[in-house]
Design a protein that fits this description.
heterodimer, A: mainly beta, seven-stranded mixed beta sheet, four-stranded antiparallel beta sheet, B: mainly beta, six-stranded mixed beta sheet
Chain lengths: 114, 112
């Protein structure tokens, strides 16, 4: 069955870059939209952006200047880079498949703190 | 950006009763070329990722119980749970995927 798993550091210092990877199994990463969504503790969901095989990307304008989503089809992975982070970027980060997303990773809490 | 506004923020319903959650978008999410509403509903329980319940405003995702239904078109949508079960306690979000950024409603917390 389709599975997604986020990985990366759970603690990032302010002004540094948050980097997460999502490993996909059970589905071809050469199809579908692949998304990142985040959820600050106790708050609602925020769409970060997506990538489609071939390189098409779309980002939330509120984050566009700081975010990059990339795809490594050889490893069946896609990644999120968010630079110049602040405490406001502390959240559970989810990777998800398709639009709308019918499969999600379990989520990874990333804390921005010195 | 398309703003999604849900009502109410909190809802308490007795077991076996009907629960209704509303969602309004700041602009239409109906794509005229295919007559589809780009509107989904998610259920999220504590410590879990969101679960897709409904897409295209009214199509139930595979495996979702028939007591969940979605309706509406254009800018006004409704999620209905026909007979509330204990396992339905969760936060529910509407979500538009018509145009980026793909925004979510603020969530409705459903309790018994």
């Amino acid at each position: 069955q389709v599975q997604l798993q986020e990985s990366g550091p759970g603690l990032v210092k302010p002004s540094e870059t948050l980097s997460l990877t999502c490993t996909v199994s059970g589905a071809s990463i050469k199809s579908y939209f692949w998304s990142w969504v985040r959820q600050p503790p106790g708050k609602g969901l925020e769409w970060i952006g997506y990538i489609y095989y071939g390189g098409t990307t779309s980002y939330n304008p509120s984050l566009r200047s700081r975010v990059t989503i990339s795809l490594d089809w050889s490893k069946s992975q896609f990644s999120l880079n968010l630079n110049s982070v602040t405490a406001a970027d502390t959240a559970v980060y989810y990777c998800a498949k398709d639009r709308p997303s019918n499969y999600w990773g379990q989520g990874m809490l990333v804390t921005v703190s010195s | 950006d398309i703003v999604m506004t849900q009502s109410p923020d909190f809802l308490a319903v007795s077991l076996g009763e009907r629960a209704t959650i509303n969602c309004k978008s700041s602009q239409s999410v109906l794509y005229s070329s295919n007559n589809k509403n780009y509107l989904a509903w998610y259920q999220q329980k504590p410590g879990q990722p969101p679960k897709l319940l409904i897409y295209w405003a009214s199509t139930r995702e595979s495996g979702v119980p028939a007591r969940f239904s979605g309706s509406g078109s254009g800018t006004d949508f409704t999620l209905t749970i026909s007979s509330l079960q204990a396992e339905d306690v969760a936060v529910y979000y509407c979500h538009q995927y018509y145009s980026p950024p793909h925004t979510f409603g603020q969530g409705t917390k459903l309790e018994i």
